[in-house]
Amino acid sequence: MGSGFASCCIFLSVLLLAFMLGQGRNVRRHHVEEGSTGLNYLRQASSSIDGDRIDPSGKIFFKMDDLKVGKTMAIYLTNKDPSTSPHLLSREEANSIPFSSAKIAQIIDFFRFSKDSHQAKAIEYTIKQCELEPLEDELRFCATSLESMLDYASSLLGKKAQLQVFTTTFVENPTVPFRNYTILAVPERIRSTKMVACHTLPYPYAVFYCHNTPKSETRLFKVLLGAENGDRVRALAACHMDTSRWDVDHVSFQLLKIKPGSSPVCHVFPPDNLVWVALPA
């Protein structure tokens, strides 16, 4: 199963950079995508819970005991069309555009959005997310170019380390985002003690919130999922082994009906997220 996953060595990422930069021009015309990318549910407590009602896009969590062949779970996974999604800019172009809360009005004007538009609200939201103080035991960075993302991953994983990047991929595009998936094969653990997860944020060009928690153990797995209609997903999943310092109101605890520190919490990465790891020496 491992050979089918979206993975590549660092030199292939340079080729990916060239491809993305070729599509990343005319940045002023890019649409700001709406919808959850999973970041709110991974980093923050949710305010969208009303009794047993939870935003379906938050249903990406499960218990580590569920990580076994034959287990069926309701999971939200949506596959965005890359041709309509914002693309990464070069470092030079990204650095030429302001990116701070002090310049929000200038940024909105640069992209020619109305100050009351949902695009303007998304810009303000993303910049504020990027300026938040890190959580306890968290290192974080917002990457506005692939060069800056690679630099950040290398700085945490090792300048001389052989890096590999993983993501969730669909064998074919799903017809609906929320459905029951069954684990079809024994999950394969990715043997790396270091990882940097990068989550997309809504913005006119691609912005990734990248972070890691070096003092907390996180286990990474490749999981083959299958739906009743025959759809297949090669999913990337992470299991956080110590949740004792998580917010007691975190949506995962309410969804799984557990308490902080009582059990590891696992989640599937949305397909537009990237996870960098350092391969074992």
From TrEMBL:
InterPro entries: BURP, BURP_dom
Entry-linked Pfam families: BURP (PF03181)
Residues of the BURP domain: 61-279
Keyword Signal assigned: yes
Position of the signal peptide: 1-24
Key word DNA damage present: no
Residues that span the membrane, as ranges: none
Keywords in alphabetical order: Signal
Name of this protein: BURP domain-containing protein
Protein source organism: Gossypium raimondii
